[in-house]
Amino acid sequence: MNKEMDEITLERRAIARGEYPRFRLMARIEHMLLLTSFTILCLTGLPQKFPFSPLSQGLIALLGGIETVRLIHRWAAVVLILGSVYHLLTSSYRLFVRHERMRMLPDIKDAYDLRDTVTYNLGLQDTPPKMRKFNFGEKFEYWAVVWGTGVMIITGFILWNPINAARLIPGSFIPAALEAHGWEAVLAAASIVIWHLYNVLVKHRNKSMFTGMLGQHIMEEEHALELERLERGNPAYPVVPPEALRRRQRVFFAVAAVVAVLSLAFVIWLFTFESTAITTLPEATRNVFVPLATPLP
Amino acid sequence: MRRQKQTRQRPIAVLLVLALAGLLALADAGRLRAEAPAAPAALAVPGAVAPAALSPRVLPLPQAQPTAHPPTDAGCRSCHGDTEATVVFPSGETLVVDVDLAAFDASVHGASAENPIGCNGCHPPATYQFPHPPVAEPDLRAYALSRSESCVRCHEPHTTAHPGPEWSGGFDPAASASGMSVVCTDCHGEHQVQPAAAWQQPAATAVCAACHTAAGINLTDPTQLSLHIQFGLFSHRQVTTDFCMGCHGPPGKSMVFPNGDEVSISIDGNALHASVHGLGNDWQELACTDCHQNYNYPHPPVEAASAREYTIEKTELCGRCHETQHEGQMDSVHAEALAEGNLDAATCVDCHTAHNTPVPDQPRSRIPQMCRQCHSTIFDDYAVSVHGQALLNDENPDVPTCIECHGVHNINDPTTALFRNRSPELCASCHANQEMMTHYDISVDVFETYVDDFHGTTVTLFQSNDPNTPTNKAVCYDCHGVHAILAPDDPEAGIKENLLVTCQQCHPDATANFPDAWTGHHRPSLRDNPLMFLVNIFYAIVIPSTVAFLGFLVATDIYRKARGR
């Protein structure tokens, strides 16, 4: 009770300072997991997609050769998978325990916001659209990540375990998975560089993923409706009665523990699932000096 | 073969005439002197009395009397100019002791010569006392040998192709022991030795011919023999090829190395002329001595203990002209094996042969046949391959022989990681060649589709970054075979028929679906690998449109900011 109240108090004080709550700790942890694994996956994966560019070759050499690069890639993939599991668990917690709305779901307003943003940028209308906590661009990014991660995990699993994958799916899916994995990476990397890095580094220096708070100026520009909502004194997140919270938490943590353990088991299993190929070529000895009994003329 | 002693062919008639003359000399020496035109007057010493007095045809051998006075020429001539006496050797052979004094006086050693030597020059007084001690030699031949030994007291033995005793210069212990030796007197005669100039007349070959005919040993043709005698035997000039061929031309000659190796030293002259070093040589026809340097006659003893050692020693000689090739060879696995003590390792002549060296790649099928000499089982594999069949049956000009993959002289070790990592490029050097592959209806995509594939990408990365590190990723020959490469659609053992088995070599757990993961070297299309094709199409649309969409949004935003809003 006190804790919740304290948080609300802190929130109000921050808002009074012009610092608006944007991301809670669990979201920031998720982002760090994603940022780390995604970067490593790109650095170790894209050179495999374009292995013959000098940049790739230099990077591969720098990281200790292609076999090491692949190992790093797989460890980073594990981090990404665990990060995804963590996201599913925290999202479920927000949905089922805290009964928060699913504000990431796109709706028709996002289409209008997109339209209005473009027309405003082009000078065809005078006022920018007022957007909610998650605007159309962020929703696009979020769902792109969901899609991309899904594609990468599935195709990555196939590539990691082609022998066992081929027991379930046609063999021809494997090279197709390789193509999808590579091109999806290109798509993701391109989107992040063009869109995300522009928005958070170039357009503004947005530090909210590290501090959890966003300044008034950016709030006005990108989340005017959320700003207004907070200014009206609404809590950033719905307050849940403590009894209900504890009741739901009990159930949730039990399920979450099972899911977490299963996920961990899945990852361990992933690493040890199959030995795709022999690691060293068998020694083959052949006596090559077998002179003809009768020399040719 | 026991060579018969060369008998002095003095006509019996002459002996009889001289014997008769000796007898008649008792009655009228002056008259007989006129009747013996061969005997110069100055030397006609009336010393024939004693032998004539000792008339028995066979003298009992006199006892040694060391205290007697040394004989003088006159003393010798008094008996030996006119006698029918003979010496009987323990072997039973006999020797007429009569000397043609006239012929002796006309010889280079005779009275008319610049430096005349008397009888004692060769028959030393220490042993030739009178009465003569019994002959020490057991037979006629031994006697001739002993007398010839006295020649070398004054004459340096000259080069000769004949085997002879140690001092004669043509020493060959085996030939000498078997009696096949030729000594000075065999050619020069005993008492009628001719000046060196006489031997430079072509007619001198008659002497050779007479002996060889009698002995049944073939001579080379007379023109060569004349050269042989004029420029070989009697000069210390560098020997010529013809000189060498005088001995090495006839077949059936061999030499034995200390370890017992017996090698033919007969050279097929026609083959030598037809070889790359022969008449057709761009530079000039090579002489024997270009490779067998510093060979005069008699040959210096061979130092090599075995025929193989000799061959290896001679390898250096090829490098004098063929420097690049020799240096390459020195970097090869063969040279490496040799350095490690493997004497079987191939050197120049093992592949190129020593004397009848052919153009090595004409026809190209010669190349694998050459390697086959030592690598017969690998040849057998190659011979059934698509490449081997095309080469051996059709002399196909495009298929690789051994050297296209393994190199010519600097043959690399094919078992290294380096060779393995580079091997796909090796195959690609032909299989990515559009012009060449068109003839055979083979796709040139094979290399690029391989490189685009997981295996090929990895191997190529290894090849460029880490070429000496072994990789377990498949290279061309892991699937297609090393030497016994068959057509992929070969109905019995082709890779298409056996793809799963092929995959299982490296992927032991692979099941029936798994081989479909391989793109079969086909670029994705609706026909081949359609799923890959569709995935590619999907991203070919999604990526540009996403980039364009996001780029557009960013551009509008930049536009807004630029306007200061």
What is the fold's blueprint, element by element?
The complex is a heterodimer of chains A (297) and B (565).
Chain A: H1 2-17, E1 19-21, H2 25-49, H3 54-62, H4 66-97, H5 108-121, H6 136-160, H7 162-168, H8 173-203, H9 208-211, E2 213-215, H10 216-222, H11 224-231, H12 242-272
Antiparallel strand pairs in A: 1-2
Helix pairs in contact in A: 2-3, 2-4, 2-8, 4-12, 6-7, 6-8, 10-11
Chain B: H1 12-35, H2 49-53, H3 73-80, E1 86-88, E2 94-96, H4 101-106, H5 119-122, H6 140-151, H7 173-177, H8 184-188, H9 196-199, H10 205-215, H11 222-233, H12 241-248, E3 254-256, E4 262-264, H13 269-274, H14 288-291, H15 307-321, H16 323-330, H17 333-339, H18 348-352, H19 366-372, H20 376-384, H21 386-394, H22 402-406, H23 417-431, H24 434-438, H25 445-452, H26 454-465, H27 476-480, H28 499-504, H29 530-562
Antiparallel strand pairs in B: 1-2, 3-4
Helix pairs in contact in B: 15-16, 19-20, 20-21, 23-26, 25-26
What does this structure look like?
The complex is a heterodimer of chains A (297) and B (565). Chain A has twelve helices and two strands; from the N terminus they run αβααααααααβααα. Chain A is mainly α and 297 residues long. Chain A has one domain (2-272): Fumarate Reductase Cytochrome B subunit (Up-down Bundle). Chain A has a two-stranded antiparallel sheet. In chain A, α2 crosses α3 (54-62), α2 (25-49) runs antiparallel to α4 (66-97) and α2 (25-49) packs across α8 (173-203). Chain A is elongated. With 565 residues, chain B is an all-alpha fold. Among the domains of chain B are: 1-155, no CATH class; 359-517, no CATH class; 524-565. Chain B is built from 29 helices and four strands. Chain B has helices at residues 12-35, 49-53, 73-80, 101-106, 119-122, 140-151, 173-177, 184-188, 196-199, 205-215, 222-233, 241-248, 269-274, 288-291, 307-321, 323-330, 333-339, 348-352, 366-372, 376-384, 386-394, 402-406, 417-431, 434-438, 445-452, 454-465, 476-480, 499-504, 530-562; strands at 86-88, 94-96, 254-256, 262-264. In chain B, strands 1-2 form a two-stranded antiparallel sheet. In chain B, strands 3-4 form a two-stranded antiparallel ribbon. Mean pLDDT of chain B is 77; it is low at 1-11, 13-70 and 230-238. The chains are: A mainly alpha (297), B mainly alpha (565).
